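ESCALATION

Customer reports they have been waiting on this structure for their group meeting. Please prioritize. Original submission:
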Amino acid sequence: MSLMQLSASISSSSSSFLGQGSISSRNQKDSFDAKKSGTCVCVATPPTKKTAYKTKVSRNANMAKLQAGYLFPEVARRKAQHMLKYPDAQVISLGIGDTTEPIPELITSAMAKKAHGLSTLEGYSGYGPEQGDRQLRAAIASTFYSDLGIDESDIFVSDGAKCDISRLQILFGSDVTVAVQDPSYPAYVDSSVIMGQTGLFQKDVEKYQNIAYMRCSPENGFFPDLSIVPRTDTIFFCSPNNPTGYAATREQLTRLVQFAKDNGSIIVYDSAYSLYMSDDSPQSIFEIPGAKEVALETSSFSKFIGFTGVRLGWTVVPKELVFSDGYPVAKDFNRIVCTCFNGASIIPQAGGLSALSPEGLKEMHGAIGFYKENTEIIVDTFNSLGFNVYGGKNAPYVWVHFPGQSSWDVFAEILEKTHVVTTPGSGFGPGGEGFIRVSAFGHRANILEACKRFKQLYK
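Update from on-call: job pushed to the front of the queue and completed.
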């Protein structure tokens, strides 16, 4: 099945999804147990205790530039505080973008079979190829990049797109300049800071020096005005975007590719939500002519089939992509993978291969369709309350505007008065101030209950 066929079937009538695969039985298992309703498992780093002894090793100065905690552990910390304050509250987490529905048995059975096989002489295997199982790489190429000139040798299987973002930062080094969408997934900026690519944080504008923040707002249709974006070495671009949910059109991505060519830049394209598309926006940057010369792409099984905890993703580095001296980017990335990573676990890879079988793809239809129905419920709720609502059509996130208000204040009010966890938009960059992101990842009954509480608060 081609990627376009898969998308078309996902975009069909939403009611068809509830009866597919193993999704239909999920609604009957929903509950509001405060300990189970959320999936935020990160915890904030505890304060460093003073000790009598100190080493003579200086702290990495770049770590000191980071502001507060990473966004999602901070949300989890505030959630934990709220649960201590209200131990009997039925807390619902629509903050961190973590999947909630069970992985289909077809896929877990494949992983179990692989795991049990390790207990036998015939089934045991040690190190696998650092680039990933060849069968899986071929399946990724045929499923997601059919007719786009991408083959298995261009694909590096990993333990998740987020991990690959950091490996790519190591690949590019500390001397490159970087541009990011604003707002955008915070890992892009934080990893740039850690690598030493930025200057200090400027509190007056809520930005790091030496990062080009490409504002994406309702006023510009959530696509940056490239005429005012300075030239940078790398451009991080996510479509559909996290957190706004906006998907760039073919014409817009064509402009982005040409912008990169004119400037000799490399686009790091994050397509982790590509299968949530409901329109004809490109699902891969490689659908754009010439993109293989200026772009690489990272993606993941996390939001497609519930692998957030299993950990499996991939990065595509085309042979045509070369550095200024003509050296292939893929060769250096291969060296990074072989040096810093020993390849993804063979057990999740077995699950990934099963997920890309005809039966697995059918399950993927159901899982994505289920979350898209959740999204529609959330969008309809905020629209009915008179809010300006964005996203939701092409991604499992709803971007709600609270003009003139602090994102963290809105987050706090919603948590205090409804016991629902959201994500403050300012955590994704200064362009997110005044917005909150509501995740559609949740049990259906929890989504319905959360929306009921939103209506009670904002009626």
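Sent to customer with the following note: DSSP finds 14 helices and 15 strands in the chain.
Escalation resolved.
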